[in-house]
């Protein structure tokens, strides 16, 4: 089959076959390209979509990017059940198998070092949301009721501001304590920037967006610790996701779907 090589991840050789029905980007099943003590997991994709110019144009198409991201993540999820993958960026493509092997050759020591660190470990994500803030009274829109004096109006505004500040302080204190506790159950952790609710579609305001690197054998204890905190602070919501491939701890070669279309150094279609 002709086409470019889309690379999902690099990992050590593994004996357990992937799911027979698994398909990757564009519907092509993934296969392995071995090189020394590593393998790249790749599939064929059409040059008409993934060569440099058409890929740049596709980056403006959110529906197209979403479909590619889902297929990409599906392969990574399948790999995570049988081995420890080092995911590459969404949209990493090469002209042929030779280009894939050249990429592995250039980064071999780095890949092996990172895989050693991640072996037997998974990533868990934990987010804290402030679900409700004080309801805004009509005067917050800028109009002051005629029956309310200037002094009463200012007092009401100060009370509302103080209430919002108190809620945020409580949320931040809870999140700081939760992160400290969970970091004690993990080998490493990352605090990411809070999610933009407009982009994520999640309810409430994101107070904490953290990732934790946890040995597989200790994941149950980690999950139980998160579950125990969920009722500790009314008005706050704790969300747990995972286990994932260790995107947040895999190094500069990797990224999640939020970096859709970025091209890693050394790749290309020429």
UniProtKB/TrEMBL annotation:
A GO CC term attached to the entry: gas vesicle
Composition-biased stretches (Basic and acidic residues): 260-270
Keywords assigned by UniProt, alphabetized: Gas vesicle
Chain spans, region Disordered: 133-168, 251-270
GO terms classed as biological process: gas vesicle organization
UniProt keyword annotation of Ribonucleoprotein present: no
A Pfam family matched in the record: GvpL_GvpF
Predominant location: other
Localization (cell): Gas vesicle
Superkingdom of this protein's organism: Bacteria
Protein family membership: Belongs to the gas vesicle GvpF/GvpL family.
Protein name: Gas vesicle protein
Source species of the chain: Streptomyces gancidicus BKS 13-15
């Amino acid at each position: 089959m002709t086409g470019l090589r889309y690379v999902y991840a690099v990992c050590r050789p593994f004996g357990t076959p992937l799911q027979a029905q698994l398909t990757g980007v564009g519907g092509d099943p993934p296969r392995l390209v071995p090189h020394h003590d590593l393998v790249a997991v790749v599939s064929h994709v059409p040059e008409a979509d993934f060569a440099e110019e058409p890929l740049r144009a596709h980056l403006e198409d959110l529906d197209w990017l979403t479909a590619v991201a889902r297929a990409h993540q599906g392969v990574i999820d399948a790999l995570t059940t049988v081995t420890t993958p080092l995911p590459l960026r969404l949209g990493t493509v090469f002209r042929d198998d030779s280009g894939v092997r050249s990429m592995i050759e250039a980064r071999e020591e780095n890949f092996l070092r990172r895989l050693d660190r991640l072996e037997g470990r998974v990533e868990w994500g934990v987010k804290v949301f402030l679900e409700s803030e004080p309801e805004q009274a009509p005067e917050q829109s800028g109009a002051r009721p005629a029956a309310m004096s200037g002094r009463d109006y200012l007092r009401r505004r100060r009370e509302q501001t103080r209430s919002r500040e108190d809620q945020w302080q409580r949320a931040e204190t809870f999140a700081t304590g939760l992160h400290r506790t969970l970091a004690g159950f993990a080998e490493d952790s990352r605090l990411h920037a809070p999610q933009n609710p407009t982009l994520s579609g999640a309810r409430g305001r994101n107070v904490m967006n953290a990732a934790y690197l946890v040995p597989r054998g200790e994941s149950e204890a980690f999950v139980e610790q998160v579950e125990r905190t969920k009722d500790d602070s009314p008005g706050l919501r704790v969300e747990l996701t995972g286990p994932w491939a260790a995107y947040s701890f895999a190094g500069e070669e990797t990224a999640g779907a939020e970096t859709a279309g970025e091209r890693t150094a050394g790749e290309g279609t020429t």
